[in-house]
């Protein structure tokens, strides 16, 4: 058997040598410092950090800068404090064993860049005070509250660096004594007076005030009064501003001269500040003022677990300035630490390297299969043989995970200030881990639990006591072993409890427990599982899903409380129902792939427990392991035959039920308020809320997985589904169920809407399109008609709502819009009729819009009833078509009897309008055919008065001959009004009226005969064939009448002219203007009468114009005389006034009398000469009498 090397023989440096595991700021033993400098490893990353630091620091040496802050960040154990100490050694140019600190770097060639070396030399040669301190240790406060501000700690360490008292009042006194050159004298005198050493007693100053006072007086530094005043002021709180502190540092630096520097190396600033914004502001101001006043001669170098960016982001924008002061930032990572550990601890000798190379070549695949993680977060394993040689006996992931562990323990499980005194170095933990196995041969691996011992001293009691208790627990550690496997598993779970980068799964824990390259992982995994079961039973560990969690004492108590909570199975089923039907498959209805508006709502059940109302034809029934049907195929096949549901068997894995049960238990626990009574109640509630979320997430993940692998049963079959994802599977299964349950769904060949209903009632369809459209949903239409007929045969009524309810359910499943369309189609095709309040609704008495609304409006559903429509016989249909053709000249469609009647009535209305138009011609006229129109109007109005289709067909059939007779009688009437006959008739009427007006003023045999002939035709009831004779008679009448008219007109015209001349002659006046005016008026007035007489075509009217002329003459002359008298009156003057030569000579005016005035006898009857003489004698006497009164008498005849 091959002999392997022991682990202790593999390393270049003894693995059991003494190295400091905790780098404490404050440790100053020379030997330790020498080891620190000698073994300090400058990693690749640190090469860059050294370059950045010394480059920035050099600016304050060669000139001025206010960028004088350095922020070193890294996880707990990353070597921040170590770096801080190394920098302080270098900058203070410390000498150890006769060598300067920088010489350790130069001789070992730790720094590769010559420029960095040059900057380091310049810095080390500059006079510098390095003040290295842990701020938490130097603070006089304890705990997180009441911490000293940054300024106080800075002042304290600055005073201590100069050898002064940490008490600021005393330090100020000492500073003044030094300045006055009396400090040594003071110390000697104080020792003389008190018999005590000043430096030993100064921190107990309050007990030595009288001696201090006496000393100050005796050395002549203060008077008695001044000493008393100073003693009193020292009892008050010390106060100094940050500005004054910065000025003090600046004064000190300048006094030192020689480009002196002061550096504050502050360890664990981040932890000290924590969430205290006042401390953050204090650090910002201190750093800022030191930069302003000292101009790069005073530096602040701090360490923190957090990067400065993350701190200022958390604190808020108020602290953005601090980033400007700490421009030099050094971030240490686990890569840095691993590199240091590899070089300082794990570096192998030549023989070990060769042996490990052979082992890796043989076991590479074994190792890869041994180290397995299953949480999806990357963790390093050996990358190659070189990596194996460098890291062995550790595994690369351990560097990273341990850094997370250290950080999490610092935050959650450490004992507070004790941990802040220094960092538990990962270097020491790896050294101690390897040291435990130093006697083991090649092949051994350090399991992760071995790091626990290196942390134990830093753990708080509440955590460490659990591990201690487990060691003593006879159930966990029955053999009382020091290296108990069960306890080691518990240690691992404790360490990773707060590490989010690794989950406590069985696979991961098994990997963390690997102790040998040749380990049988299967055996180890089973061993780990057994250990975990033991720990769970002892309530030290809780299993949450696949993750095992370490429980604190308080958490154990909480788990016991939660475990006692009862959960009813119905509660679990409700949760399952919510998750499946609200989250995983949130559809509430199945949508037909054929018609998007076909949606089938389904019932939702889990183990036959309905969610909501169980009212739909179809459903989904989830079968859980809780059901008796779970995994029972024969029962599920039978059940799916009896119930119209998709049965989804989730299988017998009940993990998700356990998770849901825990979810409910925690939910009840949180609502109970029990956590409020616990010491860390709010933290526990927060943790349990998070844990509950995890249970919910796991339950949903498991439930989804169950859905993916579920079996589906529909209609007595275990159906095979093509879909890959469960959502599509459920939809596909619902589709199969819908096809089975709604087996008459395919009667709907085209889904319809209200617009399609309107198309049915529109006349724009051509015959071919209409015929094609009538094929749509034909089976569905017939199904509805048959159902209505069945109801009628049973003597039952059915309304639209009942039809919708019936046909929306299985086996039809039609939607309301399609059912409405079917009703409309059946109505329009004459298959059914609609009735409301017992009255038939048809296109005869309702508009299309009203019919449509009666079908589609919800409030009409229960009021509108459907009945089978009575068929109209073919004889009636033929009669209506014939009448329509004869009367209207239209061919109406006979397929839809309602449409026939509607069209017929519409044509009737149009015909009535035509008749009314013709009847308007008869107003005040005696045209022939009025009785025919009135008869036709009566016939048509009877049609419009009827509403029932049957009645209208009967009316048309019963009066078919009457309609045809009317059409025949109307033919000559239409011709009369359409052609010239009406004009000839009108002319005859006009001529007859002219004759009637003038017949007493003349007598003519020819005209009288012509008028008799015209009148005879005008009074004939059917004169249409004789109207042609009227035209000739009109001509004959006009010629004869116009001849007589002309004979009568000429004498009358002469008479008018004669009267005009007489009128003009009688305008007797001396006034020329008046005469001219009236002459013009006479001319105009008589010209108008002459024009009218010339235009007149009426004999009676002609005979009146001479009398009109005489009347005009009298009117004008009377008017003339009146105006002439007015003028004469105005021209008269007084007798004294001379006669004006302008007055014209008066013209003698005749006396005008009519012959009728002097001749009373209207007729002279003459039989002899004596009679003549008798009449003339009477006339002469009358004239002589008239002459007696006038010089001139004019007689008008």
List the helices and strands and how they pair.
Elements: E1 22-23, H1 30-39, H2 44-62, E2 69-74, H3 80-91, E3 95-96, E4 99-100, H4 101-107, H5 114-124, E5 128-134, H6 135-138, H7 150-161, H8 168-180, H9 183-194, H10 198-201, H11 209-218, H12 224-234, H13 242-256, E6 261-267, H14 269-273, H15 277-294, E7 298-304, H16 308-315, H17 320-325, E8 328-332, H18 334-344, H19 350-370, H20 385-391, H21 397-412, H22 417-420, E9 423-424, H23 426-436, H24 452-455, H25 461-472, H26 485-495, H27 506-512, H28 521-537, E10 541-544, E11 547-550, H29 553-563, H30 569-584, E12 589-591, E13 599-606, E14 609-611, E15 618-623, H31 633-642, E16 645-649, H32 655-672, H33 681-708, E17 711-714, E18 717-718, H34 726-741, H35 754-761, H36 767-773, H37 778-793, E19 798-799, H38 800-808, H39 816-828, E20 832-836, E21 839-841, H40 848-856, E22 864-868, H41 874-888, H42 897-919, H43 930-945, H44 949-958, H45 960-978, H46 981-998, H47 1005-1018, H48 1027-1065, H49 1072-1095, H50 1099-1102, H51 1105-1131, E23 1151-1154, H52 1155-1158, H53 1169-1189, E24 1193-1196
Parallel strand pairs: 2-7, 2-8, 5-6, 6-7, 13-15, 15-16, 23-24
Antiparallel strand pairs: 1-9, 3-4, 10-11, 12-13, 13-14, 16-17, 17-18, 19-22, 20-21, 20-22
């Amino acid at each position: 058997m091959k002999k392997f090397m022991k682990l202790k023989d593999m390393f270049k440096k003894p693995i059991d040598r003494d190295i400091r595991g905790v780098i404490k700021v404050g440790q100053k033993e020379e030997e330790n410092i020498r080891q620190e400098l000698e073994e300090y490893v400058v990693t690749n990353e640190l090469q860059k950090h050294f370059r950045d630091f010394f480059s920035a620091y050099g600016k304050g040496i060669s000139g001025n800068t206010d960028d004088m802050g350095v922020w070193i960040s890294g996880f707990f154990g990353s070597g921040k404090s170590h770096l801080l100490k190394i920098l302080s050694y270098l900058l203070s140019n410390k000498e150890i064993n006769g060598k300067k600190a920088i010489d350790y770097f130069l001789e070992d060639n730790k720094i590769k860049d010559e420029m960095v070396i040059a900057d380091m030399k310049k810095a080390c040669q500059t006079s510098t005070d390095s003040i290295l301190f842990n701020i938490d240790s130097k603070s006089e406060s304890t705990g997180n509250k009441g911490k000293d501000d940054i300024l106080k700690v800075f002042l304290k360490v600055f005073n201590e660096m100069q050898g002064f008292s940490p008490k600021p009042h005393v330090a100020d006194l000492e500073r003044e004594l030094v300045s006055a050159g009396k400090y040594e004298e003071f110390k000697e005198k104080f020792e003389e007076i008190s018999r005590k050493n000043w430096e030993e007693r100064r921190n107990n100053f309050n007990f030595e005030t009288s001696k201090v006072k006496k000393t100050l007086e005796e050395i002549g530094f203060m008077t008695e009064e001044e000493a008393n005043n100073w003693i009193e002021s020292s009892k008050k709180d010390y106060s100094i501003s940050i500005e004054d502190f910065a000025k003090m540092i600046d004064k000190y630096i300048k006094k030192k001269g020689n480009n002196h520097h002061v550096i504050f190396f502050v360890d664990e600033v981040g932890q000290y500040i924590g969430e205290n914004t006042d401390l953050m502001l204090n650090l910002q101001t201190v750093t800022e003022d030191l930069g302003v006043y000292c101009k790069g001669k005073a530096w602040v170098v701090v360490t923190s677990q957090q990067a400065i960016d993350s701190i200022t982001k958390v604190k808020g924008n108020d602290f953005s300035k601090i980033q400007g002061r700490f421009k030099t930032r050094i971030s240490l990572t686990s890569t840095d630490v691993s590199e240091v550990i590899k070089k300082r601890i794990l570096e192998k000798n030549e023989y070990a390297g060769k042996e490990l190379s052979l082992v890796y070549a043989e076991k590479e695949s074994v190792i890869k299969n041994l180290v397995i993680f299953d949480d999806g977060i990357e963790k390093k394993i050996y990358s190659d043989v070189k990596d194996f040689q460098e890291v062995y006996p550790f595994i690369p992931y351990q560097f990273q995970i341990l850094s997370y562990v250290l950080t999490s323990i610092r935050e959650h499980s450490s004992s507070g200030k004790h941990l802040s005194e220094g960092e538990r170095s990962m270097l020491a933990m790896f050294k101690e881990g390897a040291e435990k196995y130093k006697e083991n041969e090649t092949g051994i691996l350090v399991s992760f639990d071995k790091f626990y011992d290196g942390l134990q001293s830093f753990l708080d009691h509440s955590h460490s006591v659990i591990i201690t208790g487990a060691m003593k627990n006879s159930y966990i550690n029955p053999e009382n072993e020091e290296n108990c496997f069960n306890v080691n598993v518990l240690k691992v779970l404790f360490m990773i409890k707060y590490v989010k980068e690794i989950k406590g799964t069985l696979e991961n824990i098994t990997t963390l427990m690997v102790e040998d390259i040749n380990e049988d992982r299967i055996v180890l995994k089973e061993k780990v599982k057994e250990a975990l079961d033991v720990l769970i039973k002892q309530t030290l560990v809780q299993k949450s899903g696949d993750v095992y969690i370490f429980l604190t004492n308080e958490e154990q108590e909480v788990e016991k409380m939660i475990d006692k909570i009862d959960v009813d199975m119905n509660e679990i089923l409700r949760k399952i129902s919510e998750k499946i039907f609200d989250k995983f498959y949130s559809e509430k209805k199945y949508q037909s792939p054929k018609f998007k508006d076909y949606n089938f709502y389904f019932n939702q059940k889990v183990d036959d427990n309905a969610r909501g109302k169980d009212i739909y034809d179809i459903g989904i029934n989830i079968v859980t392991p809780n059901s008796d049907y779970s995994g029972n195929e024969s029962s599920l096949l039978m059940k799916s035959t009896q119930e119209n549901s998709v049965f989804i068997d989730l299988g017998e894995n009940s993990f998700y039920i356990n998770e849901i049960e825990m979810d409910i238990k925690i939910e009840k626990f949180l609502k109970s308020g029990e956590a409020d009574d616990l010491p860390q109640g709010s933290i526990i509630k927060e943790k349990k809320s998070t844990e509950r979320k995890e249970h919910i997430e796991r339950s949903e993940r498991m439930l989804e997985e169950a859905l993916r692998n579920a079996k589906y049963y529909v209609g007595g079959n275990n159906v095979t589904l093509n879909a890959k994802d469960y959502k599509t599977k459920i939809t596909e299964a619902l589709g199969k169920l819908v096809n089975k349950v709604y087996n008459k769904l395919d009667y709907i060949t085209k889904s319809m809407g209200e617009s399609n209903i309107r198309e049915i009632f529109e006349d724009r369809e051509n015959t071919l399109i209409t015929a094609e459209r009538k094929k749509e949903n034909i089976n569905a239409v017939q199904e509805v008609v048959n159902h209505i007929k069945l109801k009628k045969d049973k003597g039952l009524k059915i309304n639209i709502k009942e039809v919708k309810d019936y046909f929306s359910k299985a086996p039809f499943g039609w939607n309301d819009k399609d059912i409405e369309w079917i009703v409309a189609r059946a109505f329009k095709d004459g298959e059914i009729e609609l009735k409301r309040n017992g009255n038939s609704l048809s296109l005869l008495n309702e508009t299309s819009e009203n019919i449509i609304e009666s079908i589609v409006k919800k409030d009409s559903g229960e009021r509108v009833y459907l009945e089978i429509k009575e068929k109209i016989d073919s004889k009636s249909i033929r009669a209506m078509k014939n009448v329509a053709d004869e009367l209207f000249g239209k061919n109406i469609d006979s397929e839809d009897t309602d449409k026939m009647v509607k069209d017929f009535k519409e044509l009737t209305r149009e015909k009535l309008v035509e008749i009314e138009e013709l009847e308007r011609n008869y107003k005040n006229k005696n045209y022939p055919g009025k009785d025919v129109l009135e008869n036709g109007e009566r016939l048509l109005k009877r049609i419009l008065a009827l509403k029932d289709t049957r009645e209208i067909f009967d009316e048309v059939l019963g009066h078919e001959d009457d309609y045809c007779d009317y059409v025949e009688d109307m033919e000559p009437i239409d011709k009369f009004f359409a052609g010239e006959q009406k004009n000839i008739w009108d002319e005859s009427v006009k001529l007859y009226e002219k004759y009637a007006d003038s017949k007493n003023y003349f007598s003519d045999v020819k005209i009288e005969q012509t008028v008799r002939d015209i009148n005879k035709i005008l009074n004939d009831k059917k004169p249409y064939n004789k109207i042609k004779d009227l035209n000739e008679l009109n001509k004959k009448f006009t010629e004869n009448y116009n001849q007589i008219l002309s004979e009568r007109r000429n004498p009358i015209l002469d008479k008018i002219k004669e009267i005009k001349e007489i009128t003009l002659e009688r305008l007797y006046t001396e006034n020329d203007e008046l005469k001219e005016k009236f002459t013009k008026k006479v001319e105009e007035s008589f010209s108008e009468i002459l024009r009218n007489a010339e235009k007149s075509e009426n004999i009676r009217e002609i005979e009146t114009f001479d009398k009109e002329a005489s009347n005009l003459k009298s009117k004008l002359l009377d008017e003339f005389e009146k105006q002439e008298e007015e003028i004469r009156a105005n021209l008269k003057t007084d007798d004294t006034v001379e006669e004006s030569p302008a007055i014209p000579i008066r013209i003698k005016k005749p006396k005008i009398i009519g012959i009728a005035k002097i001749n009373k006898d209207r007729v002279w009857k003459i039989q002899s000469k004596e009679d003549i003489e008798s009449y003339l004698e009477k006339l002469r006497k009358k004239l002589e009498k008239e002459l007696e009164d006038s010089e001139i008498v004019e007689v008008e005849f």
